[in-house]
């Protein structure tokens, strides 16, 4: 059997799972999903800032849950766990993840540390990659495109939120050779994508009733992740391998900040070389994602609220005969499919569980 | 089995459950909870407006779910179901609920139709109660206070959102004789409490960045529900019976509208006749709710976000020695514990399931 | 005299100004500006819906103002006024505006009725233009580009909110021949752009925490207005004439709805044929707008909050050397420079007043 | 002539006005109002953090204004000015204000430093008052109640935002002896009341979609200000003197935080000893405020949006015959009438200008 993805493992012994960086939003959302996963035992939650304190000291939404669960240091989390999720910011947990891998634990890293080759990492994150040898053992965890190589992964690099959205929106076009010379990705995110650390920029009164672009003109680090995925598809087709060579396109990526808590919408424009019509595009998209439970190809334009608190991605596509542009649109919850949800999807895949086990399907509407 | 086992279904004989009024927010939230309940089969969804259309035509968050589920008329929902939830507005479904009860189905009504005696109903809703004889067979579904009589109920009157919040905040004080001459309930709700029907008052641009009181000075219909529950507790103590006689106090209830989607917070003030201290109050509250899984007594002041999308109630209490006022505060999600969550809690109780099965515990934070 | 002299009135002969469509947001914002204009007397406010009622019945923000001002029918407004603003939706006031013009009054129309040639109007608004002969007498009121011909205008077609934003963002590029083959305008608006009429789509709970695209793929009526202005500039340069012939480009315009009340941001992408650098672009923009008091060319990226309640436009520009794209960004308050503010600017220009008289300069921050 | 309040001074020489604490919201709102005041010259803006930088470095809404205005240190602001506004937090500018007063400048302090007697200051702010002798020279700047003594004031203590709202709501009742044994003030504020300093509590994602009480049970420092004003009215009637003796009542004040930027609503409950009816109450309120241009007594319930960006206060009142409670409700913009607007009103009064000169009357709606 090549992959366990369609088989529910009825484990009598639950998997011991630890989380690093549990005081960030990604960590909290992992914990909420793990708490309802029937095959999981929470074996440790790490946080430098809250070490020694109870879960409730950090997170009001867990009031009354896990009354005996305390934050510990990373060593203890790793020691007690079979699999480690890291939701710490990039550059902060690589040392621990190396230790975890060395002691035979599997790792799912939600940060950017293992998403890029050491060269790209240096260029976009302005620091040398600390463990280039680990990069070569990692698998890029964009599930729908890398599913085959993820089942046996020991180290998963969980994709960024914008790259998940834009890549899923454009993947069928890339596979079909429909990307034109210019690829314009205009995307907008709720504020939780920027994390929990307070700053003047994200202070309530400065952000409420305020819409703005940021990191314009090729400055956002997620640009290269999107380019990598589109390049891999153009080179390899549907089933991607993280470490095979590929040629990559250049995109223009313009992110915006929306005065809302959650949600990303990417509106992607490209002008294909050959003529298309909208019905063909829908057929293409439906075929491409026919086996993907978390991808909804919808005739309705996607809206972020439909995936609030959900781990799905909703995609639609249009063709504008006047300007000859294809407009591909996708939405996810940046903390769901854009972070914790996709990490859990990877977790399920790595253990042969049903891919949606413990995940949230329907969005919290209204 | 915990409430989290939302995707593994073991039962061979699931309960056939239908929903009336599925095009409103209460209906949608019931459906979202029922979809992950392991002992339930959705046997019908009713909506006059959407009859004949697919679920997705009404609700973007269910995109891709239940692809074959269509709205039907109420008769068909009732015919195919063993238990009927009604999320239709008051006065609109009583006829169908009567038919359901006559054919031996159990009913959980989220509207106000069976919450009040026919006299009170006439006074507060300005219409004659259509079926006074059914009222006498109903049980008031405020679970923590009526649990004993709910297990065998055939017709449950699910409480209003404000009454749930304020009653749970004040219940321990009522039980202990600590309610003073004046009881001031100042409460505030997110906008979803007003339903899905568009109106100028609730148009986005008129409501955003706007905080206002409404139905001030004894005009809100939920006033009498709160008075009933406090009166029953003062008369009967902890375990309430819907149809025993009781004396009721008068409260001053001032509701406010908050520019947010979900959540209610009640801040209740009363000046007890006898001296109290805050530590005693916390002991009283913790004892009172010690067996209630969905009630969290917290030293931290409650905040609505902690129960966003959750079916819990978080309560805290303070004593102000300067003004001699007790301030009791509680928060719920008006669509969770204030509507669909409590209805599901009633459902579980009526079938002997674990009370939190299919419910949402942790809030969606941030 | 500065724009701030809002309470000291010197003129003995004020201009009698009437408003049609005063029960919409554009009308209310006109009234707020006219109330502080030292050279204006409000001579009538029209509203079909509120005719005979006092101003306060419609608008809470005017509580206590103009205690004797009542809504009347359009005939009376026109009869008593020297100049008529119309803030009624397109297609609803043309009949009255014709009458006003015939009796020698000047007109500023905030609707789309006189913005397009009869042919374009028919194509984009799907109705025959009722008075093609009036179109030929109108001037397109995008002040910074049409200033010369506006001073003597008898009928001003006040531009749409998106066209104002995108045209001002791209005008210097058009003038310099820097627009490439593809012009992608991705823009986002607060909800007030959709007017005051309640609908499910714009109900608070459906719109809050929701970001979405709409009218994707060439369907939005503002597309043609942007194309007209860019075409005129490419043909005529800096000083535009509404009725001279021109060639127009095709753009791809994708509007989005932001969960906020006010504000538009346009992020425009184009890839010029010739090489540019960012410093040159800034010089170009500063030169182009050097005499325009309401246009701020800013090195900081524009954000909508900076123009909340203001009549200014803030513009910035970037060049991405990787993708060779110029990204031009502009923000306005859709009810300010995007509607009532620009209409007032036109009014001042038509009467030889200082252009910013009665306008709001600084945004209401936070 | 006893007071200059009704006479517009046509100064040929504008008053030189400086602001300390200009990098906070109060300072920015002062600057916006001063910029449009015809009798004012901005002579200096102070900020420790931004000293030496241009205005635009701190405030995006002033982009393009005062291109040569730089932040300086406090000494320079004082030296160049005839009147000093201080918008610095309490305890931070008293030293400078003393120097300003000593050199004969007039001072309007928006902080709490001169609002309370040294004893009360010590008790509520937990620090010794640095200059008790200055307190005795200060006037409490709640304009409508202290107008007579404000005209000649050299040091004005501008009231807090909650005290302004609650005091104006309850003043007519206090004057008429209608305050009962218990006075419950439940109030809610937009987030800008907490200032511009970022913190986890006020981070966008933690505050959005979150309603909560804070400083419950007599802990909020504004409590004593409200009690002082109600006590003064009960003792002195309509025209208050800051330094006459008075008896004060005790109130129960419960503030809440609303997920919005601006606005305060106070809902005040008290049960009078003698019977009242609602019509009498409205007559009482209208008489009490008949000469106050910024107070609107409205039959409609007040809503914060109606005063967004405005310097008015809207008040309404109800009587609940069931509970015998009077409910008095008032709304202001916390940065308008609750801070900068009232400070400007004081400024006008102190110089014999029209009281509303430079102020904002109509709210920014929507």
Question: What key phrases describe this protein's structure?
Answer:
7-stranded parallel β-sheet; 14 strands; homotetramer; Rossmann fold; disordered N terminus; 2 domains; 7-stranded mixed β-sheet; Dihydrodipicolinate Reductase, domain 2; 366 residues; alpha/beta
Q: How is this structure best described in words?
A:
4 copies of one chain form a homotetramer. Chain A has helices spanning 25-35, 74-80, 94-102, 118-125, 132-135, 143-150, 161-175, 204-207, 222-236, 278-288, 336-351; strands spanning 15-20, 40-46, 71-72, 83-86, 106-109, 138-140, 155-157, 183-189, 212-213, 252-257, 264-270, 295-297, 313-320, 325-332. Chain A is α/β, with parallel strands linked by helices. A 7-stranded parallel beta sheet of chain A has the order 3-2-1-4-5-7-6, sandwiched between helices. In chain A, strands 9-10-8-11-14-13-12 form a 7-stranded mixed beta sheet. The longest helix of chain A is centred in the C-terminal third of the chain and has 16 residues, at 336-351. Chain A is globular, with a radius of gyration of 20 Å. Chain A starts with 14 loop residues before the first strand and ends in a 15-residue tail after the last helix.
Question: Could you write a compact summary of the structure shown?
Answer:
Chain A has eleven helices and 14 strands. Chain A is α/β, with parallel strands linked by helices and 366 residues long. In chain A, 63% of the residues are buried.
- Net shape of chain A: globular
- Helix/strand structural class of chain A: alpha/beta
What string, H for helix and E for strand, traces the elements of chain A in order? EHEEHEHEHHEHEHEHEHEEHEEEH
Tell me how many strands of chain A there are.
Answer: 14
Helicity range of chain A: 25-40%
N→C terminal distance of chain A: 42 Å
Per CATH, what is the topology of the largest domain in chain A? Dihydrodipicolinate Reductase, domain 2
Low-confidence stretches of chain A: 1-11
Number of helices of chain A: 11
């Amino acid at each position: 059997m090549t992959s366990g993805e369609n088989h529910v493992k009825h484990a009598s012994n639950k998997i011991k799972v630890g989380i690093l960086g549990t005081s960030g939003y990604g960590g909290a959302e992992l914990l909420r999903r793990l708490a309802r996963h029937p095959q999981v035992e929470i074996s440790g939650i790490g946080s430098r800032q809250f070490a020694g304190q109870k879960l409730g000291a950090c997170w009001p939404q867990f009031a009354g849950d896990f009354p005996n669960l305390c934050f510990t240091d990373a060593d203890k989390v790793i020691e007690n766990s079979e699999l480690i999720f890291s939701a710490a910011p990039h550059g902060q947990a690589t040392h621990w993840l190396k230790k975890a891998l060395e002691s035979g634990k599997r790792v799912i890293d939600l940060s950017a540390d293992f998403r890029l080759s050491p060269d790209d990492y240096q260029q976009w994150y302005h620091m040398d990659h600390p463990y280039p040898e680990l990069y070569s053992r990692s698998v890029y965890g964009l599930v729908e495109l890398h599913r085959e190589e993820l089942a046996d992964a020991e180290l998963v690099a969980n994709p960024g939120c914008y790259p998940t959205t834009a890549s899923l929106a454009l993947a069928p076009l890339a596979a079909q050779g429909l990307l034109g010379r210019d690829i314009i990705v205009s995307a907008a995110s709720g504020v939780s994508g920027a994390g929990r650390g307070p700053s003047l920029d994200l202070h309530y009164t400065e952000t409420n009733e305020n819409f703005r672009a940021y990191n314009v003109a090729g400055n956002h680090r997620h640009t290269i992740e999107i380019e990598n995925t589109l390049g891999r598809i153009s080179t390899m087709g549907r089933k991607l391998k993280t470490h095979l060579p590929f040629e990559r396109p250049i995109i223009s990526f313009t992110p915006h900040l929306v005065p809302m808590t959650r949600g990303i919408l990417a509106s992607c424009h490209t002008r294909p070389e050959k003529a298309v019509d909208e019905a063909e595009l829908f057929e293409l998209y439906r075929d491409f994602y026919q086996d993907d439970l978390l991808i909804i190809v919808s005739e309705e334009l996607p809206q972020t609220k439909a995936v609030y608190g959900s781990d799905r991605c909703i995609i639609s596509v249009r063709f504008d005969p006047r300007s000859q542009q294809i407009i591909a649109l996708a939405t996810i919850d940046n903390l769901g499919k854009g972070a914790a949800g996709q990490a859990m999807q990877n977790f399920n895949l790595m253990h042969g569980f049903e891919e949606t086990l413990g995940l949230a399907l329907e969005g919290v509407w209204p």
